[in-house]
């Protein structure tokens, strides 16, 4: 498995690209320092939260992450 820092670099490399939710809703994200800002929300996600989720891999879906953070 890749190190978390390699994964974070990949996340940073895709900043500004268009992605789609399961419901086919378009979104992008920007990164400022160690905070990721999704275009479809009013809150940010800290790098430390990504690190916690990374330790849980593999997971069955985003609900698993939400229940532990």
Overview of this protein structure:
The protein is of the alpha+beta class. The chain has one domain. The protein is built from three helices and five strands, in the order αβββββαα. The chain has helices spanning 4-13, 47-55, 62-66; strands at residues 19-20, 26-27, 29-32, 35-38, 45-46. Strands 3-4-5 form a three-stranded antiparallel β-sheet. The protein is globular. The model has no long low-confidence stretch (mean pLDDT 91).
Question: Which keywords apply here?
Answer:
69 residues, alpha+beta, 3-stranded antiparallel β-sheet, two-stranded antiparallel ribbon, 35% helix
Distance between the termini: 22 Å
Count of distinct structural domains: 1
* Morphology: globular
Instruction: Give the ordered list of helices and strands.
Output: HEEEEEHH
Low-confidence stretches: none
Radius of gyration: 12 Å
Query: Which structural class do the helices and strands define?
Result: alpha+beta
Order of strands across the main sheet: 3-4-5
Strand content: 15-25%
The helix fraction, in percent, is: 25-40%
- Secondary structure tally, helices: 3
Q: Got a strand count?
A: 5
Biggest β-sheet description: 3 strands, antiparallel
Mean pLDDT, as a whole number? 91
Per-chain topology:
Elements: H1 4-13, E1 19-20, E2 26-27, E3 29-32, E4 35-38, E5 45-46, H2 47-55, H3 62-66
Antiparallel strand pairs: 1-2, 3-4, 4-5
């Amino acid at each position: 498995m890749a190190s978390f820092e390699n994964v974070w670099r990949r996340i940073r490399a895709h900043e500004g690209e268009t992605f789609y939710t399961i419901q086919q809703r378009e979104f992008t994200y920007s990164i400022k320092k160690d905070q990721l800002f999704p275009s479809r929300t009013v809150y940010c996600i800290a790098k430390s939260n990504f690190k916690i989720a990374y330790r849980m891999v593999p997971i069955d879906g985003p609900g698993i992450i939400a229940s532990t953070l």
